[in-house]
Amino acid sequence: MLIHKQSGWQLHVPVVLPRKAVKLESVQVRVGKTDFRMCCVDLGINHHLVMTIQDRKGRVLATKVISGGEDNHLRKSYLEKVVRLQKQTRVIPEGERFAADLWDKIGNFNDDVAHRVSRAIVEFAKKHGAKTIVFEHLTNLKPSKGTQSHRLNQKFIFWVKGRIVKYTRYKALHEGIVVNRVSPRNTSKECPYCGGTFTRYQGVALAKCPTCGVKDVNADYIGSLGIGRNFRKKWLA
């Protein structure tokens, strides 16, 4: 597979290597251990993700942010080219795909992003001894209003989110790590410190809690803490 990056083209060749079977423990067995740790991943729009390592009491042991700005900008530039071509093109010959090279480039790029990000998630979890990776169970994501290229870009971001979860699942499996998903209910709204309701600042990814006074907290970080909280409510309550 050819992948285009700013430095040039790269050839990615998938190789299947034999691995020993990995025995996975059930959720009940994992959470019952005193050294239980989980990697809670909040997939974002501007950031690819914010993830935290949490113990069974919700204490944060490590945090990592993976920015998506450069990837989103590059994808949007490809989509702007597609939109310009659409406006210029009147007739597409029968049997031909419109802007086939560009769409293939975008598809390969999205797949590369999903592989890079999922690999980083598994490596982070493994580094900190987390045997469980937790995502939100997200459905019905809709792009916000904007230009055609903006809406297309957000649709692809949502598609990449699904691919990241899928690729993380099988990469984690090879390391003896299990992927779980939890309800997204109030993950980014409920204050992890007092249980109050967070208020988002307009135009920035920051939030504050009027109840306990915590302010200028990254909203995606709050989302990661909320994912951990929902996991504990389900399995440790």
Automatic annotation (TrEMBL):
InterPro entries: Cas12f1-like_TNB (IPR010095). Residues 162-227 form the Cas12f1-like TNB domain. One of its GO terms (molecular function) is DNA binding. Keywords: DNA-binding. It holds the Pfam family Cas12f1-like_TNB. It comes from the Bacteria. NCBIfam families: IS200/IS605 family accessory protein TnpB-like domain. This is Transposase IS605, OrfB, C-terminal.
